[in-house]
Design a protein that fits this description.
Blueprint: E1 18-20, H1 22-28, E2 32-37, H2 49-62, E3 67-72, H3 77-88, E4 92-97, H4 107-114, E5 118-121, H5 127-140, E6 145-147, H6 155-175, E7 181-186, H7 190-202, E8 207-212, H8 217-234, E9 247-249, H9 262-275, H10 284-296, E10 305-310
Helix pairs in contact: 1-9, 2-3, 2-6, 3-4, 6-7, 6-8, 7-8, 9-10
Length: about 325
Amino acid sequence: MLTARLARVRIAHLPTPLEPLPRLSAQSGGPELWIKRDDQTGLASGGNKARKLEFLVADALQRKADTLITGGAAQSNHARQTAAAAAKFGLGCTLVLRGEQPAEAQGNLLLDKLLGADIVWSADRPIDLVMGQTTDDLKARGKRPYLIPYGGSNAIGASGYVDAMEELMQQCTQRDVVFDWIVLPSSSSGTQAGLVVGARALGFQGHILGISIDLPARPLQAQLAELGTATANLLGLSFECTAEDFQVDDHYIGEGYGVLSDLERSGMATLARTEGIVADPVYTGRALGGLLDAISKGAFRSDERVLFWHTGGVGGLFGYGESILG
């Protein structure tokens, strides 16, 4: 196992299901579509961050931390799962969330509060600055905080997706299936960086395409390369990553992070009404909408097999209400 040298706690329900999407494949008229169900990891409604937190929480416990601190948007899936992991291991949790406190707690924010997290709002201040100040404040109060970066995306967290790639390849062997493409939402880089490092170490021959949620391709590729190299070094792998190692499609950013458009609405509705699977409006909805649009434009051959990696986020649905329906 590539991650055997790292400390780990068990949080996620693994392995997550690997399923064909026959009705969506038929409706899209393109390649054979499958899905990897990381929305089924189990931690406070599931999602990809559970894999990262297995390694991050283990590191926090080794360092004798008593509080987890992280940041994100008001509907952050990462914040919600960090709060759940903290509760599971008896740790405190402080979340630094972007912007102002809304009048009503809905979606992931409601779950954050239910899980017992303390919440600090960054207002008009840079969120990284507020996270640093909050960490210093906790230390001044005698706490031992462990700072988890945005999205859990450092080398320790990304190792969760090196392990996920190993899990996928074992499932492919068991089921005698080969994927030409893996397509996933890409933002803070940890998921795609981990998959690419794992793919390279294990000899995966297909393409891994990240559909960018918020960043133009070039800065995202630079971020991915830096994190990929750091992750490989952490795991003792003898290679470095460059920007060219990462395929990124930035055509679907739209009006920005978390801004719902017809692309997300269409992708979410299509998946729900063909396969009974729910995507979220920020990450999987945008990436799925992008994938289906790319299929309609002939980006994939009909004889190829494409895996969509569902990174979760169903809790965020309930922060958007009926705007999801258009």
